[in-house]
Amino acid sequence: MHFHKVFPMTLALRDALWVFGEKLNWLVDRICVILIAALVLDIWFGIIARYVLELGITWTEELARYIMIWAALLAISSAAHHREHIGLDFALRILPPLPRRILQAGIDALGIAFFLFLSFYGIGMTVDGASQYAMIFGMTMMVPFASVPVAAALTAFQIFLTAIRSVEEEDNKLETQA
After folding, report:
1. What is the pLDDT of residues 35-86, one digit of tens each?
2. For burial by CB atoms within 10 Å, which of 15, 33, 100, 120 has the most?
3. Where are the domains of the chain?
4. Could you write out the DSSP letters of every residue in 30-93?
5. What's the gap between Cα 178 and its chain centre?
6. C-alpha 167: how far from its chain's center?
7. What 3-state DSSP class applies to 8?
8. pLDDT in tens, 20-32
9. 60 with 45: CB under 8 angstroms?
10. 0.85 exceeded by the pTM?
């Protein structure tokens, strides 16, 4: 049975969602590159300021921590978009098509549920962060804590899009083999 017969979704809608997911992933990839570049510059500045210029600058360590958290969490959605997240790849490779599709659908459903759960509870954590302050910057912890719900929602969305694409591609492969 074909996915689009069980879950009717027009090809135009699926393709539009996939194009949106591609553009969103392109943007997230660029943001991650910018964050990693900022992280490298921040760390190098911290090293030069401390050991070469002998300045007492301490904020570079805290900034590096927050940049790293944002970059790492945003990168998860990019990995999900390319289906490079942790999965049961070894089991999927040895299973026949139908059990493989069922297992992949289960993994995708668990992934979506987990990241939606994380996003939902991350919102509460972010709101609570309004009353907590960073040690050196004096800013509220809302910005660092917001990385959790933002990245989790993006990841759930990318897993959903990848699941739709993968099932449709599997259907097409099976049709050409028959």
Report:
1. 999 999 999 999 999 888 888 788 888 899 999 999 999 999 999 988 886 6
2. 100
3. 10-177
4. HHHHHHHHHHHHHHHHHHIIIIIS-----HHHHHHHHHHHHHHHHHHHHHHHTT-SS--HHHHH
5. 36
6. 20
7. coil
8. 989 999 999 999 9
9. yes
10. no
Q: Which residue has the tokens 């070469």?
A: 52
Euclidean distance between CA atoms 131 and 134, whole angstroms: 10
Report d(CA 32, CA 79) in Å as an integer: 12
Q: What tokens does 119 get?
A: 């996003």
Tokens 């600058």, residue located: 57
Q: What percent of the chain has pLDDT over 70?
A: 85
Find all residues with CB under 8 Å of 109, minimum gap 6, and list them.
Answer: none
Give the span between the Cα atoms of 142 and 129, in whole angstroms.
5
User: Which one, of 26, 147, 166, lies nearest residue 109 by Cα?
Assistant: 166
Partners of residue 133 on adjacent β-strands:
140
